[in-house]
Structures are given as structure tokens and as C-alpha cells.
Design a protein that fits this description.
Blueprint: E1 7-12, H1 15-24, E2 28-29, E3 39-44, E4 49-55, H2 56-63, E5 77-81, H3 85-98, E6 101-109, E7 112-121, E8 127-133
Parallel strand pairs: 1-4, 5-8
Antiparallel strand pairs: 2-3, 3-4, 6-7, 7-8
Helix pairs in contact: 1-3
Organism: Fodinibius salsisoli
InterPro entries: Glyas_Bleomycin-R_OHBP_Dase (IPR029068), Glyas_Fos-R_dOase_dom (IPR004360), VOC_core (IPR037523)
Domain VOC: 4-133
Length: 135
């Protein structure tokens, strides 16, 4: 078997709110935004990793169980590569301006002077890490 592409499917409570948040962060829309499709989709990074955000009630039947309660746990954390410490800082400011939550402020990671990053959650609690490796 040969896998052609991998993408993420995440649940959200409000498509329009999600669309606005990720558009403010500069994510590239994957097609036209339409509430009728019951999802909003973005292409992330140079390889254009696809992230679909489905309305929770639309995604749940295909999940084979309950959707994670992100107020009481975690599902996955995506990492975004940054080219500099300054870019990590810019991401942190953009997230705050867009209404997201920084759960880890920009900082040196684990005492390694070459690693710098921050962590944020979107409006539904999906977690992202912005990471710079200065080596």
C-alpha cells in the first residue's frame, strides 16, 4: 500500500468562528468557505498539510465514539516550524490578537539554547506548538 496524503479531521462548535481565527493567523483556505459543507478546511505549511474542521455533530458519527472534551484533556498537538525566535514571538502575538490562548509563552525549551517555542490553543481547544530549532 502507498499512502498518498495524510490530513487531520478535527471537531469545532462554530465554523465561522474557526474560519475567522485561522484566517487571521494566515492559514491558507482549502476551497471556498461555506457553512453548508459542515466543514472549513485549511492548507498548512509548505507541503500543504490539510486540516479539516468539521462541526462536532457532523464528525461524531464517523469517529466511532465520543469526541474528546478538550477542557478536560488533550487529543493531539500539531507543531508549526518557525524560521527564527522572532517568528515564534510573532505567532504568539497573532494568536492573542485572533482570540486564541497561549498555554506556553515563547521561551527556551528544556534548557536547550537552540530550541525556542510557544504553545497555543484555538477557540475550541485544539493545541498547536510553534517551534524554532536554532542549530
Amino acid at each position: 500500500m502507498k499512502t498518498k496524503q495524510v490530513w487531520a479531521n478535527l471537531s469545532v462548535k462554530d465554523l465561522e468562528r474557526t474560519h475567522k481565527f485561522y484566517t487571521k493567523l494566515g492559514f491558507k483556505p482549502n476551497g471556498e468557505f461555506s457553512k453548508e459543507n459542515e466543514l472549513v478546511s485549511f492548507l498548512v505549511g509548505q507541503d500543504e498539510f490539510v486540516v479539516h474542521f468539521f462541526l462536532e455533530e457532523s464528525l461524531k458519527p464517523s469517529m466511532g465514539g465520543d469526541i474528546a472534551d478538550l477542557e478536560n484533556g488533550n487529543e493531539v498537538m500539531f507543531t508549526l516550524s518557525a524560521d527564527s525566535k522572532e517568528e515564534v514571538d510573532e505567532w504568539a502575538e497573532a494568536v492573542k490578537k485572533a482570540g486564541g490562548t497561549l498555554f506556553s509563552k515563547p521561551q527556551t525549551i528544556k534548557g536547550n539554547k537552540h530550541w525556542y517555542g510557544c504553545g497555543f490553543a484555538d477557540l475550541d481547544g485544539h493545541k498547536w506548538n510553534v517551534f524554532y530549532n536554532g542549530k
